[in-house]
UniProtKB/TrEMBL annotation:
Keywords linked to the UniProt accession: Phosphoprotein
InterPro entries membership: Cell_Proc_Reg/RNA_Proc, FHA_dom, FhaA_N, FhaA_N_sf, SMAD_FHA_dom_sf
Organism: Micromonospora andamanensis
Protein name, entry field: FHA domain-containing protein
Taxon lineage: Bacteria, Bacillati, Actinomycetota, Actinomycetes, Micromonosporales
RNA-binding found in the keyword field: no
Domain FHA: 196-245
Length: 269
């Protein structure tokens, strides 16, 4: 008798443990001795994904892509130097688990490690949600149709990429818009439908190696009609054309400054 799919989560856990062993020269083993262990967190994340499945049109299964891990104040302070590395490993392993189950997520798998006031040492809490970039969607929301990249289509009512909008080409010119950011050294970053997080952390979609930029610094939301830039509470703020902004709709030619990096917003038909 074959145990079949039952072995799949185990293999993800085994790979996760193996990667942890090599991380920061075994520092994880010392940090987690007698307190919460990362494998327990990953187990809980897998259970949360299972518990919040939603069936989409076409029979696909949508599961949460954002997982917030609350640790006790004591565990959180001990873990602080390794939190970013652990969040990256948890996100990678959860993405592997979701892939093996052939489930769908909207965008990237994101893991955030927070301080959970009131939690006893060794205790933790996992909160899972479907995160679309601009807002948290109820996990039972019907009609989400994220393709393989997570940005192929938005929630119901979002215009498709080729429909006319704020940056659309004149009628008869086709849908060949080229919406992108161009850095001062000439590098080009095309924008996709949906949300793009800019930052220097592993959870950013557009990563910039600039110490003046926060790990999750700003977000661009493109709905097919316009692009809205939102600062995500960054340490140094976000500037557009020299003015500090919290959220603003971009116009072609706008200059965005994050840290010491300047990006020009360009739209070509």
């Amino acid at each position: 008798m074959s145990s079949g799919p039952e072995e799949e989560p185990v293999s993800v856990l085994q790979r996760f443990e193996k990667r942890l062993e090599g991380l920061v020269e075994g520092a994880f083993a010392k940090v987690f001795k007698g307190v919460v262990h990362p494998v327990e967190i990953l187990n809980a994340m897998q259970r949360e994904a299972e518990a919040h499945k939603a069936i989409l049109a076409g029979g696909r299964t949508l599961v949460p892509n954002r997982y917030v891990i609350d640790l006790s104040p004591y565990d959180h302070s001990r873990l602080a130097p390794y939190a970013a590395a652990l969040a990256q490993e948890l996100a990678q392993s959860q993405a592997e688990f979701i892939g093996e189950q052939a489930w769908t997520v909207y965008g990237d798998v994101i893991v955030e490690i927070e301080r959970g006031e009131g939690l006893d040492t060794g205790m933790f809490r996992v909160t899972a949600e479907v995160y679309t970039g601009g807002e948290v969607a109820p996990v039972s929301a019907p009609g989400y149709d994220a393709g393989p990249s997570g940005y192929d289509a938005g929630p119901p009512g979002y215009p498709s990429y080729d429909q006319g909008g704020g940056y659309g080409p004149p009628p008869g010119h086709g849908g060949g818009r080229n919406i992108r950011l161009v850095s001062g050294d000439g590098r080009t970053y095309p924008l996709q439908m949906g949300s793009t997080v800019i930052g220097r952390g592993d959870q950013a979609n557009l990563r910039l190696p600039d110490v003046g930029i926060s790990r999750r610094h700003a977000r661009l939301d493109f709905d097919g009609g316009q692009v809205v830039l939102t600062d995500l509470g960054s340490t140094n703020g976000t500037m557009v054309n020299g003015q500090r902004v919290s959220a603003v709709a971009l116009n072609p030619g706008d200059m965005i400054q994050l840290g010491t990096t300047t990006l020009t917003f360009r739209v070509d038909g």
